[in-house]
Design goal:
The protein is α/β, with parallel strands linked by helices and about 90 residues long. Helices cover about 25% and strands about 20% of the residues. Strands 1-2-3 form a 3-stranded parallel sheet, covered by helices on one side. The longest helix has 13 residues.
């Protein structure tokens, strides 16, 4: 069995790229689960508002910076354009 660990808005929605004080919760999850054999990847939210795109991107970058090699997912509403999520 494999698991995708999901971050809701109270976790991923607060991360700011240039504000390390917002990184603690993600660091805690990575330390706890990154090397677990069942972890398939991380889901960063589910249909967040378009205003959450910077936090989603910051969370994804932080996961990589912390050494995670796992895939990330983010489900965004069909109303977002491709440029909104880059």
């Amino acid at each position: 069995m494999k698991v995708v660990l999901g971050f809701d808005g109270t976790v991923a929605g607060i991360v700011k790229k240039d504000d390390p004080t917002t990184h603690a919760i993600i660091k805690k999850y990575v330390r706890a689960f990154n090397h677990h054999p069942a972890l398939l990847g991380w889901q960063i939210g589910d249909e967040f508002s378009v205003g959450a795109a910077p936090a989603i991107n910051a969370t994804s970058e932080l996961l990589t910076d912390l050494g995670s090699k796992h895939q990330t997912w983010q489900v965004h509403p069909h109303t977002w354009s491709n440029s909104d999520v880059r």
